[in-house]
Structure to design on (487 residues):
């Protein structure tokens, strides 16, 4: 499945470009409807079907699918929101191929149905569902009917996966040409069920010309640049991460350091308060633990240019001391990750950092931290992460069940592989450690953030229920082995 995600506007441009290139609208609609019918034939045994059509082209796809399923002998009832005479363009053309009755959109059309095809609204959803559309969506849920959604479950907004009014939960969603953000962002993703991407004959050159800026996060996005150890390499050529250790919450930096090592950093130094050196050293034999009693000592560690990537925040303790160390790290030519307590230390806003941040720095806030840093920005998680990255100049990784990574230049990726088990103490520290480990090996900020988030998700899936953060670094070798085998 292609990884690019097209916005509704970009998809409209793709449609128009295909038509300009000689693929007529009815041909696109015929193929879209045929893909829906094919999906029904592939996943369900013949059964009575209720096809629910809306007043636009999503409904047109429904007419085509209804016709094709009826041709295959499936008992099909079709209901339309509005009048046939009001249909326009390709939808009117599609409706003309349906000679059986067109029912009014009422819940009775569901009686006896073994499958519902939802072709009410797709890309053209413009307001919350109400009236008969909302009634029937509610009834589908009450009856727990199997549902195949055309393009998106009706009520889910294509650009951000938000639900306008209500939307049904589909078992399968058939979408066309490329997926939309709604297929990967929550809550839309959870309502789509399995997503099938159908080729409706829009030439590949069209998407290249549109040059989308949004992807689903996965190895196809960054795998070619993954820093696998080279035969002639040695530990010094694999980068050296510097992790600031805290005095009290020592688990956070330990988890992060271990993850950085597992991600492949050749060396990891923990800059530790003197009284904690033994603790850190005993629990992490492969890390270097050095005392850093004050800011000057930390800066001395930073001054060694071999320590090329820095992690500040996990367990560091918020406040002036941490803020000073962040500014010291940013004053040097390093890459790094800012996480956790850094966001509390700069909760008033990132202005003190703005001029110094650049795209080899990754900020990893969760939603609460994000709002404290950047304010209540409008739009989807994609919009907000993009706006934040643009504003601060660094890569922003907005953590959550649909983690978004955004680059200041507008590129963004949505991570879909994170299991709910990852919502546990210390999980974010591991993520920050993975990213700094990849930065140390020379990956750029966007790639490192994307790869880190994806590896974190895969490690979470490998462990599954019962996961605690300590498991994640240990799950990584098997995940990396598979990644390498597939490369
Ligand atoms: N390449 C492709 O992807 C192709 C996609 N196709 C299909 O076309 C739809 C998009 O079709 P479009 O006509 O642009 O939009 P919709 O069918 O989704 O809906 C527009 C009509 O619905 C009305 N509307 C919108 N929201 C509501 C609502 N909440 N309640 C009632 N009515 C609503 C809207 O009315 P307006 O007043 O806003 O104008 C329109 O009448 C895409 O999703 C694919 O399924 C093509 O078939 C092939 C190519
Ligand atoms: K739909």
């Amino acid at each position: 499945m292609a990884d690019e995600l097209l916005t509704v506007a970009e998809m409209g441009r793709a449609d128009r470009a295909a038509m300009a290139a000689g693929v007529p609208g009815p041909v696109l609609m015929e193929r879209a409807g045929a893909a829906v019918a094919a999906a029904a034939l592939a996943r369900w045994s013949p059964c009575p079907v209720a096809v629910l059509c809306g007043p636009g082209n999503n409904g047109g796809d429904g007419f085509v699918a209804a016709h094709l399923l009826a041709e295959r002998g499936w008992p099909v009832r079709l209901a339309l929101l509005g009048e046939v005479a009001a249909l326009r363009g390709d939808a009117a053309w599609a409706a003309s191929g349906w000679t059986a009755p067109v029912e009014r959109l009422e819940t009775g059309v569901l009686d006896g149905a073994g499958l519902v095809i939802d072709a009410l609204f797709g890309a053209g959803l413009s307001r919350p569902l109400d009236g008969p559309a909302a009634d029937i969506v509610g009834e589908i849920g009450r009856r727990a009917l199997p549902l195949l959604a055309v393009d998106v479950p009706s009520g889910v907004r294509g650009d951000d996966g938000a639900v306008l009014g209500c939307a049904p939960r589909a078992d399968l969603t058939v979408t066309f040409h490329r997926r939309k953000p709604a297929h990967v962002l929550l809550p839309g993703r959870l309502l789509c069920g399995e997503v099938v991407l159908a080729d409706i004959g829009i030439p590949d050159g069209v998407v290249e010309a549109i040059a989308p800026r949004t992807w689903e996060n996965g190895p196809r996005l960054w795998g070619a640049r993954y820093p696998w150890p080279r035969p002639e390499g040695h530990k010094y050529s694999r980068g050296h991460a510097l992790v600031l250790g805290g005095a009290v919450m020592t688990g956070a930096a330990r988890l992060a350091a271990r993850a950085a090592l597992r991600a492949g950093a050749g060396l990891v130094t923990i800059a530790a308060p003197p009284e904690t050196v033994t603790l850190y050293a005993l629990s992490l034999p492969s890390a270097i633990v050095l005392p850093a009693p004050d800011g000057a000592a930390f800066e001395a560690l930073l001054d060694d240019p071999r320590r090329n990537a820095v992690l500040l925040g996990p367990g560091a303790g918020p406040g002036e001391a941490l803020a000073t160390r962040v500014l010291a790290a940013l004053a040097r030519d390093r890459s790094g990750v800012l996480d956790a307590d850094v966001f509390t230390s700069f909760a008033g806003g990132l202005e003190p950092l703005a001029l110094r941040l650049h795209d080899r720095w990754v900020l990893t806030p969760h939603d609460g931290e994000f709002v404290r840093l950047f304010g209540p920005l409008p739009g989807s998680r994609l919009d907000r992460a993009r706006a934040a990255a643009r504003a601060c100049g660094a890569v922003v990784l907005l953590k959550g069940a649909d983690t978004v990574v955004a680059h200041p230049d507008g590129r963004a990726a949505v991570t879909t592989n994170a299991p709910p088990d990852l919502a546990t103490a210390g999980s974010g520290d591991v993520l920050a450690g993975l990213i700094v480990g990849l930065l140390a090996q020379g990956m750029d900020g966007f790639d490192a953030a994307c790869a880190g988030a994806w590896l974190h998700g895969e490690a979470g899936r490998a462990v599954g229920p019962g996961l605690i953060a300590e498991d994640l670094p240990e799950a990584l070798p098997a995940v990396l082995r598979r990644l390498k085998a597939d490369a």
The longest helix spans residues 25-43.
